[in-house]
Amino acid sequence: MSHKEVLVEVKNLKVVFGKGKNKFIAIDDVSFEIFKGETFGLVGESGSGKTTIGRAIMRINEVTEGQILYHGKKLNGKISKEWDREITQKIQMIFQDPMASLNERAKVDYIISEGLINTKNFKNEADRQQKVRNALLNVGLLPEFSSRFPHEFSGGQRQRIGIARALVMEPEFIIADEPISALDVSIRAQVLNLLANLQQQNDLTYLFIAHDLSVVRFITDRTAVIYKGKIVELAETEKLFTNPIHPYTRALLSAVPEPNPYKERDKVVEIYDPSQHSYDIQPPSFIEMEEGHFVLANEEELERYRTSLKMEVSK
Ligand SMILES: Nc1ncnc2c1ncn2[C@@H]1O[C@H](COP(=O)(O)OP(=O)(O)OP(=O)(O)O)[C@@H](O)[C@H]1O
Asked: Quick one: which of 59, 99, 149, 223 has the most CB atoms within 10 Å?
């Protein structure tokens, strides 16, 4: 593999919500790297912690322990004003539900400009307007839509407005949190293709959060599978799909595709029985089973996984 530049590094991330009796460990010792130019997928069922990781990188959720580095520099804790401004511009997020994530009372022009205004990232009024027009055109919308309100648009158009809002900042890294799962099935491919094209044109790096495995397989280069706040497996996406090792990944992959994603999630929960793990007896570590293919396992499980891997390989 050629030399890859690490853009984002998540190191032993722990995110804890609440205190005392209400303490809840949402993210537990999660580490991974995202290379510049790639699409890194995070998959797992609802509540596994995907969004929490995205929000920690966005600095919306506080980091309890560990570190997040961007270009090798700290994102969390005390940072300089200049660095704060730079990452506010360079790291953008696209949200799941375009019905909830756009300010209903604001015109599209303001919705798209807000980040520019906050970071004073335009020369003058004409420049601001030009940036908004370009952003709309880049997501396949008419520039004159800028004078309209969100309710005048369909779900797919609204999501494209959400994408324009990120794009106008000229970001380097975009966290897309289930960007198509709230959309009508008939337009999902359209929006997915738009995201893929924008990546090419703008040299973007994506963190793509999803529970839909066919989407992940289509758009990501590498994928991490997250279960109850821990990454259980991480590999190049094709490797993960053709040679899954961890029982949870296997359960996830064998779940019968369901048109209703919520049903699919429930099925995974039924199929995967975590009590088969001996995590409580012996704590697992993150082990590289083959190049770039990591699995969370303790010694006993490791032996089992090794055997199953050999069987797959020799098939
Ligand atoms: N602010 C918060 N306070 C308390 N608990 C929280 C908070 N935010 C998230 N959680 C909990 O942390 C866990 C992980 O949530 P998260 O939203 O990251 O999951 P997810 O994998 O993104 O799921 P989904 O697909 O439903 O968005 C959940 O159990 C959730 O209830």
From this structure: 223
